[in-house]
Amino acid sequence: MAKVTIDDIEIEVPDGTTILQAARMIGADVAPPAMCYYSKLATTGGYCRTCIVKVEQGSTKDPRPMPKPVPSCRTTVMDGMVVRNNTSPEIQEARAGIVEFLLINHPLDCPVCDQAGECDLQNLGYKHGAEATRYEFDRRTFEQIDIGENIKLHMNRCILCYRCVKTCEQITDGRVHGVLNRGDHAEISTYIEQAIDNDFSGNVIDVCPVGALTDKTFRFKSRVWFTKPMDAHRDCDKCEGKVAVWMKGNEILRVTGRKDEFGEVESFICNTCRFEKKSVSDWTIEGPRKINKKSVISANHYEETKKPTYLYDRVQLLNDGKKLPEVNSKDNG
Amino acid sequence: MERKLLLANAHIKGIETLEVYRQHGGYKSVEKALKTMAPEAILEEVKTSGLRGRGGAGFPTGMKWSFIAKPEGVPRHLVCNADESEPGTFKDRYLMEKLPHLLIEGMIVSSFALGANLSYIYIRGEYFYVARIMEKAIAEAYKAGLLGKNILGTGFDLDLYVQIGAGAYICGEETALIESLEGKRGNPRIKPPFPAIAGLWGRPTVVNNVETLAAVVPIVNDGGAEYAKIGIGKSTGTKLISASGHINKPGVYEIEMGITVEDFIYSEAFCGGIRNGKKLKAVVAGGSSVPILPTELILKTAAGEPRLMSYESLSDGGFATGTMMGSGGFIAMDEDTSIVKNLYTFSRFYHHESCGQCSPCREGTGWMEKILHKILDGRGTLKDVDLLWDIQSKIEGKTICPLGEAAAWPVAAAIRHFRKEFEEYVTNPQNIKDVKHFYRLNQLTEA
Ligand SMILES: Cc1cc2nc3c(=O)[nH]c(=O)nc-3n(C[C@H](O)[C@H](O)[C@H](O)COP(=O)(O)O)c2cc1C
Ligand code: SF4
Ligand code: FES
Predict the structure, then answer these.
(1) Which end of chain A is more exposed for a tag (fewer CB within 10 A), N or C?
(2) pLDDT at position B258
(3) Helices in chain A by DSSP H: which ranges?
(4) Residue A308 pLDDT > 80, yes or no?
(5) According to the model, what pLDDT value does residue B274 have?
(6) What's the mean pLDDT when you consider all of chain B?
C-alpha cells in the first residue's frame, strides 16, 4: 500500500495504482481530466497530456519534486508522494495550454455534431478553455469516411487519443485500424478505408471522447439531451447484453454501453446489440439511467429527485440567518 | 588544441578495409577485452573514463550501462544509434564512412561488457551508402572471426546487423528507434519503463550513439584513467564537432574538450574564421535543438570568462545566457543572417518531424511554423512575437519525448536574444524584401 496526498487530501492505495486512479478514488472533483486514458484498455493514456499534474514530493524515500509535470494516467504512486492538481496554478495554466492545442485544429462544429452534450472535449473546453481562440490559420481538414456499414469517421474532430486504435488492437480480432501519416497530418484510419468488419467494432464509438466516430444508425436523429437514457438488457450470445438505450417516446434511437461518471463503459457491447436491436421488444428495460446531474443529458428527465441538502445553509446565508420556513412564511415581507 | 583519438587514422588510404585497419592497431581492444578482461572490468573502465553519451543528452555512459537489468535467461541487446538526423550534425556519418571498423570494434567490446549477443546498428535511410560501407565491413569482420560464434576462440558470440530506417528524425529518439527496429511505426514510447529494463522486444537494451561506442575503443586500450586525462572537468575525452555555416573551413573536427569557442571558430586548425571577412552574428553550438547564442555570449560567458567547448562551459548560465553541447553540431552565422528566417527553417523541420502522438508537440509545432511564416511574409504583429513565446512555453516540459523541447528551445532562445530583430520584422515589414535589410538588422543587434 502507498499513501499519497493529492490536493491536500490523503488516501491509501494499493502499490501500482496510478495517480489518476488514486485521484478518482478520492472523487471526481479531484481527478484530473483524461482525454486519452481508458481504464478498460491496456496501454492507453500518455498522449493527450490533459491529465498532467505536479509532483511536489516524489516519495518519502526520495522527497525530491519531479522536474516536469507528469501525466497522472501513466505515473504510478509512491509511498509519501505529494501531488497537486486543482491546487496548482501552474498546472491549471499548463492544462489551459493543452486545451488550446487540442482546439486549434478542431472544427468546433458542436451545433451539428452528434457528440454535443456528451462530449469530453466540450466539457474540457468549458472548464479550462479560453473565451476566444488565438489561432488564425486554416484548420486541417479531411474527408469524412465510412468505417464499415455503421460507423462514420469525421477525422476533422479527432484529437488522436489513440483509444479507438487500442480498442481495435485489444478487443477486436485482427488489427485493421491504425494511424496513417504523422504529426498534425496524422489520421485515424482503417488501412485504405478497409471497413472494419467485426462483432465488436462498434465500441470505437463509445470510447471516442469526441464526435470523430459516430453511430450511423443514430446520426442526426436527435440531440442527445432530447433522448432519455434507460438501462436495459437482453440475452446475447456475444456480449453481456447490458446496455443503455436512448429513447424518445417509445422509440429506441440508439444503443450504447453503460458509461460511468468518467465516460467509460462498464462493459463492451457487440454490434448486434448496438446496431440491430432498436425495438423496445428486444430489451428488458430496467429503468432510467443514473446520470450525473451536471450533465445536460440529465436535463428535463430526472425521475427521482433527491431533496437538496445544501439549500438550508444557502438560504440561511442569503437571509441573515433566518430559517427556510421563516423565509417562506407570510410574515416575511 | 587538435587532439586525434578517434579520427587519428581517418586519413589513411584503405583504412575502411579490415586489413589496413588491423595493420594500424585495429581490433586490439577486442583481443584485450575478450581475452583478458571481465565484463564488469570494462564497465569500470568506462565509468572511470567519465565518457558521456555523444548523442545529445550527455548522460554518463558507464552509469547508463550499469542500469541494464540482468534477469536470468533473458537476452540483452546493444543498439547503436546511427540515425543522426539533427540538423547541423554529420559527425557519425564521417566516422562510419572513414572508420567503419572502429564502430564495429567498439560494438564488440561494448556488447561483451553488457552481455549482449545480438546487436544492431540503426542507420538513417538517407545514409544508404554508409549502410553499405558498414555492411561490407561487418562481412569482413565475420570472415575474420571477429563476429559470429566463438569470437577469437573466447567463447563469446555476437551477431551484428545493420537496419536502415526510413528517414524520420524521430526514429533517433531511442524508444522510437526501438519501435522502428521492431518493425512498427516509429513512435516514442511512454517512459517508464526505460530501455535498460524493457527495450527491444521487451528485453533490457542499451542505446548508444556511434561516437560513444567508438570512444570505448581507446578507453579499453589505454584505460579509463588515461582517457579521463583528456578534456576538462566532467567533459572528458575528445568530441567530434560538425562545423557548418558561414565559416571558412566547414567539416568534422575532433577536438579535446576545453578549447575555447573563440579558438575553435578563428584558428586555422579548425573553422578558420568567418568567410569573406564578415563578422560573426550568432552560433547554434550543439545542433538545431539547442538555444542559439549571440556572439558576445558564445565567446564569453555572462561572467566574462572565455566560453569553452565543453559540456559545463557551454551550459554555463543556464538558458538565460548559455546553451548546450548537444550532439556537437556547430552552426556559425555571419552578420548577413536573418535569425527569424533561420528560426523558421528550424521550426518547419520540427513541425514536419513531429510524430503526432502528444498534443502539445503535434499542434504547437505547426502553429509556431505558421506564425513564423506569417512574420516572414510581412504580416506579423508584435502580438505574434508574444504568442510565439507563449506557445513554446506551453510545449516545453509537457511532451512524451524531448522533441517537444527541441522545437521549443530554439524559438525561446531566438526571441530571448534577438527580440529586436523580430520587432523590426513586424514593425517595418516593408523592409523585409529590401537588400539593405540585413544591414539594418545588424545595427539593431549591435545597439
Ligand atoms: C527527437 C530526438 C532525436 C534524436 N536523434 C538522435 C540521433 O540521431 N542520434 C543519436 O545518437 N541520438 C539521438 N537522440 C538521443 C537518443 O534518444 C539517445 O539519448 C542517444 O542515442 C543515447 O546515446 P548516448 O548515450 O550514446 O548519447 C535523439 C533524441 C531525440 C529526442
Ligand atoms: S514530443 Fe512530438 S515527437 Fe515526441 S512523442 Fe510527442 S508528438 Fe511525438
Ligand atoms: S489522459 Fe493522461 S495523457 Fe491523456
Answers:
(1) C
(2) 96
(3) 19-26, 89-104, 120-128, 163-171, 203-207, 271, 311-318, 324-328
(4) no
(5) 97
(6) 95
pLDDT at B37 over 80: yes
Give SS3 for B154: coil
For residue B288, report the distance from its CA to the centre of ligand 1, in Å: 13
Look up the pTM and report it: 0.91
Mean pLDDT of chain A: 87
Q: Give the domain A2-101 fold.
A: Ubiquitin-like (UB roll) (3.10.20)
Q: Which residues of B touch A (CB under 8 A)?
A: 168, 170, 185, 190, 351-360, 362-367, 370, 387, 394, 397-400
State the ipTM, two decimals: 0.91
Are B102 and B142 within 8 A, CB to CB?
no
Q: Which of B173, B213, B311, B401 to mutate to test the pocket of ligand 1 (most atoms within 8 A of CB)?
A: B173
Instruction: Out of B170, B356, B397, name the one closest to residue A69 (CB).
Output: B397
- Rounded mean pLDDT of A61-89? 96
Q: Give residue-wise pLDDT tens across range B290-333.
A: 999 999 999 999 999 999 999 999 999 999 999 999 999 999 99
Out of A37, A38, A43, mutate this one to test ligand 3's pocket (max ligand atoms within 8 Å of CB): namely: A37
Cis ω on the peptide bond leading into residue A308 (within 30° of 0)?
no
What is the CATH number that goes with domain A106-131+140-215? 3.30.70.20
Residues of A in contact with B358 (CB under 8 A): 46-49
Q: Kindly write down the DSSP assignment for every residue of B176-232, as one continuous string.
A: HHHHHHTTS--PPPPSSSPTTTS-GGGS-EEEEEHHHHHHHHHHHHH-HHHHHHSEE
SS3 call for B252: strand
Share of chain B above pLDDT 90, in %: 94
| Residue B353 CA, closest ligand 1 atom number | 1
Ranges of each domain in chain A: 2-101, 106-131+140-215, 224-298
- By the CB < 8 Å criterion, does A125 face chain B? no
Q: Is A106 in the pocket of ligand 3 (CB under 6 A)?
A: no
Q: Assign A147 a pLDDT band (cuts: 50, 70, 90).
A: confident
Closest CA to B147 of B122, B123, B111, B173: B111
- List chain A residues with CB under 8 Å of B367: 101, 104, 135, 137
In angstroms, what CA-CA distances link B151 with A232, B24, B117, B219? 69, 20, 11, 21
